[in-house]
Amino acid sequence: MSAQPIAYGDVDHEAALKYAVQLIDHRWAQVIEGRIVLASPMWDHERIVARIRRQLDARVDELGCISGSGNLDLPGSSNWYMADIAVIPDDLAAGAGALTPGQTLLVVEVTSESNGDTDRITKRKRYAQYGAPLYLLADRQSRECTLFSEPHDLGYAVVDGPHPFGTPIRLPEPFDLTLDTTGF
User: Which domains does the chain have, with CATH numbers?
Assistant: First the structure.
C-alpha cells in the first residue's frame, strides 16, 4: 500500500503560521514577512524600553489604557508582531488574543543589532499600512529617536526626527507629553 499525497489546498497558510508562532514557549516569536523570527532582547535594549514605559505610565493610566508587548496581528499578511511597547485602550485587552496596529494609540520599537532594519523599514511600513497612529522608533545603533504619525497605505505622512538621544521627543495628543531620551 502506498501513501497517498496529502492535499493542502484548503489550508489557510497565514492562519497556520500565526497559530504556530503562538505555540513557541519561552521565546519572543514574531512572523515578519512570512519568516518566524525568534528574539531574546538584550539588557541594553530592555533598559531603553523600561525608560520609555516609565515615562508613559502615568499618562497611560489617565487615558484608561495599558501598555505592554502583546501580539499585534496584521490580517491578510504573513505578519504577527510583538512590539516592544504598544499602548491600547484597557477595554480592548479583556479576552483579546491579538490586536491590530490600528487598535493601538502608540507603538514603540527599540532596534537590536540583529534586526534593526526590520524596525526601521519593514515594521515602519506595515504599522503605517495597518493604521498605528503613532510609531516611535528608538534606534540604538544610530543613537536616534524618530516619531512617525499620520499613517496611510504608503507610509507615515509626518516624520519628526531623527533626533539624537538626549533630545526631548514630543508625543502629541492623546499623550501630550515630552519624553526625555537622556540616558538612552
Answer: 41-71+80-179 (3.90.1570.10)
